[in-house]
Amino acid sequence: MNPADDPVRPGPATAIELVVDGRAVPGLAGQTVAGVLLGAGRRTWRSSRSGRPRGVFCGIGVCHDCLVAVNGVDDVRACQRRAADGDVITTTDEPR
Amino acid sequence: MIETPDVLVVGAGPAGLAAAAAARRAGAQVVLLDAAADAGGQYWRHLPAERPAARERILHHGWDRFARLRGQELLADAQVWLVERHDDRPPTVHALVGPADGTAREKRVFAPRALVLATGAYERTLPFPGWDLPGVFTAGAAQALAKAERVAVGRRVVVAGAGPFLLPVAASLVRTGARVLGVLEANPWPRLARAWTARPAELFASRGKAGELAGYVRDLIRHRIPYRAATGVVAAHGDGRVEAVTVARLGPDWAPGTERRIAADAVCVSHGFVPRAELAVAAGCRLDPDGSVHTDAEGRTSVPGVFAAGEITGIGGADLALAEGSVAGTVAAGGADRRGFTGFPARLEAAHGIRPGWTGWLTDDTLVCRCEDVTAGDLRAAAEATGSRGLRSLKLSTRAGLGACQGRVCGRTVEELLNRHTGGLLDPGRTANRPVAALVRLGELAAHHEDHEENA
Amino acid sequence: MKVLVVGAGVIGAAVARELARAGVSVTVLDRAASAGGTSASGEGNLLVSDKGPGPELELAQRSLTLWAELRESLPAQLGPGFPAIEYEPKGGLVVATTSSGAAGLHKFAAVQREAGVVATPVDGRELEPDLTPAHTAAMFYPQDAQVQPAIATEALLASARLSGAQVRQGVEVLGPLRRGDRLTGVRTSDGDVGADHVVVAAGPWSAQVAERLGVALPVRPRRGTLLVTTRMRQRIRHKVYDADYVGAVGSDDAALQTSSVVESTAAGTVLIGSSRERRGFDERIEARVLSAIAAKALVLFPFLADVAVMRAYGGFRPFVPDHLPVIGPDPRLPGLWHATGHEGAGIVLSTATGELVADLLTGREPRVAAGPFAVDRFSSV
User: Fold this and answer.
1) Which of B152, C23, C28, C173 is most buried, with most CB under 10 Å away?
2) Which residue among B49, B134, B405 sits closest to A43, beta carbon to beta carbon?
3) 3-class SS at C293?
4) What is the DSSP code (8-state) at residue B149?
5) Which residues of C are less than 8 Å from B84 in CB distance?
6) Which pTM value belongs to this model?
7) What value of ipTM does the predicted structure carry?
8) Which residue does chain B place closest to A51, by CA atoms?
9) Who among A35, A70, A77 is closest to B149 (CB)?
10) B177 touches A1 (CB < 8 A)
């Protein structure tokens, strides 16, 4: 949510930038890859075996629905991996 | 190099933090590790150090307690991927330290004198038609995204399932800018009341928990969030994302009755909890019939030198986890601590436990295994076609539970459904058997081999 | 004639199917569930490439012919609602990574060819573009194939049922029923079961069953461990293994041996084996074993280094000291038969084993010479 309206009053954050499927996406240092993707309005970024869309489901590293490729390495849980400035994220919308 | 601490504590949530602190007080050399980047577990999940918040405590209970416990040394980003049991000594614990699911992480191997498993639990989510639509989340996901990312899972959100955990989720959602349309508890008031008001002396003993729950209830009232008993979400609808949910009255055994549709863009569901027991299973620890790790009153498991504390021993909330962790940590360090525990877990099961009528909302094409897209109809058809009474064989026939999550999400549901279709499985209880406890890269495994060769 | 088959794994299933189709009244007993032991713990290999000339190769060659028939006939018989057995005639690629390994591979292939095995020297990277460029020889075996072993077992059992066989799961054999010197059935956890013949097809547990019936059998468990990766885009098209594999299969050493076996499955995962170690029925998964398997797999396919492993599982192969299965009647106890000891080749050998047992029991002319598999070849018997 917008930090200005946030009742927990988060402190200042360092901006980072990821490259998601070739496009620059802004995030904040300390966010997970899933947090950056959701913040950018993406709800899904992967397809199940038969092509059904998948994104975050459990949010705590259990369900493996949210797998992405990070810097060319497949099968990284987006909800567990902290985003690093410059990370190249590849989502797979084709079933596999 | 194999490290040999007095006590190794796996998991830095409430139970693990308390265990490590107690073991340190008892004079032990302790290694406390967690797969996350910071301590707190799911309960005290919070904004990262890069984004400290001024009023973090409004999302939490017991934040002062956490503030005292979190000062301990923590081996963060440490993923345990294998526990090897031995006949004559406590297990060896293999961890990889580095970015989650990374490559070339640092290898750490521990042969502790005592091992404390405080790996917690995750939610059991029962399948329903449409539960894999984007916009359906576990309640834990809503909680994690609210606490650690300040992201609300939707604008108009329904929270549904069973158990007191639904209340803090609703509380976090409203503090993250979402509108909570209702909290739907599957169980009826009489059952809730019977379980929660029986034996008031016990409830008094777990008053911390009762006080926490009362706070959440006040919160619902303040935000005008309806709380409905005997009600559940039985379907989610939408074109590519959740646009509405079907809410049904549920009978005492959760069989669905009268339905109505509510417009919503997200639904957060939790029907109970599953202990994260794979490390305990690999260590050889006996489980209770509900799948939680069996311990004595001082946290000893059935394996000498292996202790367990917190939610993997039964769902009891943070206060109980703190108490259990403290006792287990002290005893693991060679000390003594005899304290009684409250009846909260038994109460929780009596009031909120899953009832068998839920399968009434399944259709043949409802997905059960989200990883491999196996439906309820697929499971029944395979059981009928093969005549097998083997969970192993039927999983291999359908691929249910064999995908990336390795049955963590669907395992119990698959087992329960197949148990009905086969007239009784002959190899039940296999769902927590995951010797490889986390994704590990082949290159990381091979690097271990080079070390074995050097040592040989 | 009434025959009791002990064991609802692939061997028991194939024996039951052949007997039932020959008109014999068959009951299959298993103390646990069907397809729950060794048959659910392997890759589902249908291989000739790892076998030198001799009786096992002859049994395998006959088996492959029968499997090729089953590929068509089982789905036709069981209908579209039955899970597919995932028969894949993918072929095997055996790769050497040293110069002595290359020489050994060419020599082995030459004697195999004389026995009717098709073995063609190839450019390994033409068949497998991601194979290490550092290999020294590659031999293609087009006759090698694969099935999903648990489903194949269930399919054979279902087919046996359609011919009248009865399958009773959760029924354990406790002891013999005898009349004079002859075995007339078994005592079980669910009452006595009479039979004219009892066929023990209990895989690595066959020695325990035989002991309960009063005879010793030199079948022991030999442990194996497999790694399974997450699903990935298919980059491995054949069953690819290191030429060392043949040596490890044929070894008598109890200590850990690994050799690399890498293949894709129909589900999109990659199976990586394999280890062989004799240490009883010990189910523990150990880092040293997983590491050794992984290191060898990376020698063949360096790209696998970044691929994630999601599961490891172990199983027990029925090991016999001379590496030949035990098939046929037991002269020490008339009425007792054995069909066991197939070690890691039980899936492929099941079909011809079932046929051979049925040939011998019903007095048909055996398609494969039975003598080499006779139980009385052991000095202790």
Assistant:
1) C28
2) B134
3) helix
4) H
5) 284-287
6) 0.95
7) 0.95
8) B373
9) A35
10) yes
